[in-house]
Specification:
By secondary structure, this protein is α/β, with parallel strands linked by helices. It has helices at 4-16, 23-26, 48-57, 85-113, 133-142, 160-163, 169-177, 190-197, 211-224, 238-245, 256-259; strands at residues 32-39, 43-44, 61-64, 71-72, 76-84, 121-123, 155-158, 182-187, 203-207, 229-233, 251-253, 266-271. A 6-stranded parallel sheet has the order 6-11-10-9-8-7. The longest helix has 29 residues, at 85-113.
Length: 272
């Protein structure tokens, strides 16, 4: 069952498209119809629950033919829809857009997680489209990676621009811990890592560290602050991902998982 906040967002997507006033569908002769959504390329399925909700919201019967998180083959059917043809047509593109985007993010996430070792989990960043972040995060979770914080209220993440207002990284961590929330701090040098660690944050992010410096920081943290989790982020691409994974940080986050995710191709076909 989709949470109410996600349901409201999905209904908002339909309303943004003025689906009730779809002049083309309203001009189409009204019939009872059957349609099937088909994956046109391989990938990891995500967003099926959302697509089903969109069709059912307008009174259609939607039956899952697959499960979120499963690997898709080309031309694999994933959802069957029965009901009024006009309602199918007016929801079609919104449902396909959500399904394609979420499956594209899940596919990218699974692909990168397969590159790293069992000691490291891939993570998303906040580089998502406003209004769609919760769905990108859900797609990441479906793919088996850490979605990171869902929104600004969930955790403290002290970044470079926050640090400008504190005397030191340790002071920033101390302020963050007063909130009672999970505290992560972004560090840009080994010296910053050592200073921040004295205040015992939950997680230290090594931001844009070259491989040699990342190795030094991780080695120091494992020896001197073993309870602090370690994340590596910034300038991580598929080409160098395995090199950073060898260092065995707890997490590696990549903005490319959402910034460059390819929308997976789905189509809706009317069938006899």
């Amino acid at each position: 069952m989709l949470p109410q906040d996600l349901q409201k967002k999905l209904i908002g997507f339909l309303q943004d498209d003025h689906y009730q006033n779809d002049v083309t569908s309203n001009a189409t002769p009204e019939r009872t119809a059957k349609a099937v959504i088909v994956a046109r390329e391989p990938g990891v399925l995500a967003g099926l629950e959302e697509a089903q909700f969109l069709f059912e919201h307008v009174g259609l019967n939607a039956k899952n033919l697959a499960q979120d998180g499963t690997h898709l083959e080309s031309n694999q059917p994933v959802l069957e829809i029965h009901g009024n043809n006009r309602d199918i047509l007016r929801v079609e593109r919104t449902a396909l857009n959500v399904l394609g985007r979420m499956s594209g993010v899940a596919t990218a996430c699974k692909g990168m997680q397969d590159v790293v070792n069992d000691h490291t989990k891939m993570a998303l960043t906040r580089k998502t489209m406003p209004g769609f972040g919760a769905f990108d995060k859900k797609a990441a979770h479906i793919a088996g990676i850490w979605p990171h914080r869902l929104h600004l209220e969930e955790a403290v993440l002290i970044k470079e621009n926050h640090l400008r207002f504190f005397a030191s990284p340790a002071d920033a961590v101390a302020a963050g811990k007063k909130t009672g929330k999970f505290v992560e701090i972004e560090c840009e040098s080994v010296d910053q890592v050592k200073n921040a660690a004295t205040a015992k944050p939950d997680l230290i992010m090594l931001d844009n560290f070259i491989l040699e410096d990342a190795a030094t920081a991780i080695r120091w943290l494992r020896q001197n602050a073993p309870d602090v989790k370690i994340e590596v982020s910034g300038a991580i691409q598929k080409q160098n991902l395995a090199d950073y994974a060898v260092l065995q940080p707890d997490y590696i986050s990549m903005g490319a998982l959402t910034k460059h995710a390819k929308t997976l191709d789905f189509s809706l076909d009317l069938v006899p």
